[in-house]
Amino acid sequence: MGKVIVVFVGPAGSGKSTLVAAYAKWLREGDASVYTVNLDPAAETLPYEPSLDVRSIVDAREVARKYGLGPNGALVKSMELVTERLEEITSKIAAAEADYVLVDTPGQMEVFLFRDLSWRLAEALRGISPESYAVFVLDASVIRDPADYAFLVTMATAVQLRLGLETAPVLNKIDLVPDVEITGDLLRDFGRVSRALREAGSVYAEMLREMLRVLLKYNRRVEVPRVSALKGEGIEELHRLVLEMSCSCGDLS
Ligand SMILES: Nc1nc2c(ncn2[C@@H]2O[C@H](COP(=O)(O)OP(=O)(O)OP(=O)(O)O)[C@@H](O)[C@H]2O)c(=O)[nH]1
Ligand SMILES: [Mg+2]
């Protein structure tokens, strides 16, 4: 088996960095070798010691000073500079001797996804390993009803289309959700989501139901892992998902 590469994408503060730390720890406890990559030039502190840190190449604070930019301008400029140096980064990932490479992306999802860096990185990673995937991390408190489940799956699909990497949604911070009715059972049962959307009877609910039906036709996985990166819970479920993605890659070859 070559290396498995997993890119963590998600809104600011959803827990990408904490999840990279928790997953790396879990994998290492199982005797796997892990190479962690921090791609966030604006990260202040990280909950793990990155094997490769983009801040040694581009540091957003230095960029802000040098070009006289505010935080957002500095981030956008930093993304451009990282893109220029991408080959340096990806050649280190290619040379890394590891079973798993975990890539932590910039806190501001939009400066990553809506710029060239995202698809260029994905393209380079696919060249390094056909087993390159993305995980879309969302804060579990966002999910309150069946329509939100459809939103989550749709967002993950949008990331997948943008990156060209198979992308799975993961709900983080499950420890903060007291009501597990929606984030618990419902997420494991697409039939229930679909019925609830039909019963809602609105045009939007019907639209979401149709969208879900189409999305799931091309994607056999309906279960969304629920994890607490902070408490290190549910990581096994996340790992099972990563293995499932690598199995379907095997099916195609
Ligand atoms: N309760 C709880 N808090 C969490 C969990 N995962 C992360 N956090 C907290 O959420 C905050 C953001 O976590 P990060 O891992 O920095 O999230 P991120 O997506 O990397 O954030 P940025 O890169 O800054 O956008 C931190 O205070 C974490 O401690 C979790 O599972 N449960
Ligand atoms: Mg982060």
Number of helices: 11
CATH architecture: 3-Layer(aba) Sandwich
Strand order of the largest sheet: 3-2-4-1-5-6
Low-confidence stretches: none
Rg result: 18 Å
Instruction: Give the number of domains.
Output: 1
- Overall 3D form: globular
CATH homologous superfamily grouping? P-loop containing nucleotide triphosphate hydrolases
What are the distinct ligands in this entry? Answer: guanosine-5'-triphosphate, magnesium ion
Give the DSSP E fraction (strand runs of 2 or more residues): 5-15%
The SSE order reads: EHEEHHHEHHEHEHHHH
Straight-line distance between termini: 13 Å
DSSP E strands, number? 6
Sheet/helix structural class? alpha/beta
Approximately how much helix is present in the residues? Answer: 40-55%
What's the arrangement of secondary structure elements?
Layout: E1 4-9, H1 16-29, E2 34-38, E3 52-53, H2 60-67, H3 71-84, H4 86-95, E4 100-104, H5 109-113, H6 116-128, E5 132-139, H7 146-163, E6 166-172, H8 180-185, H9 190-200, H10 203-217, H11 235-252
Parallel strand pairs: 1-4, 1-5, 2-3, 2-4, 5-6
The chain binds guanosine-5'-triphosphate and magnesium ion.
Magnesium ion (MG) binds next to helix 1.
Question: What does the model show?
Answer:
- With 253 residues, this protein is an alpha/beta fold.
- It has a single domain, classed as Rossmann fold, CATH 3.40.50.
- Helices cover 52% and strands 13% of the residues.
- A 6-stranded parallel sheet has the order 3-2-4-1-5-6, with helices on both faces.
- Helix 7 links the parallel strand 5 and strand 6.
- Helix 4 runs parallel beside helix 6 and helix 9 packs antiparallel against helix 10.
- The longest helix has 18 residues.
- The protein is globular, with a radius of gyration of 18 Å.
- The model has no long low-confidence stretch (mean pLDDT 89).
- The chain binds guanosine-5'-triphosphate and magnesium ion.
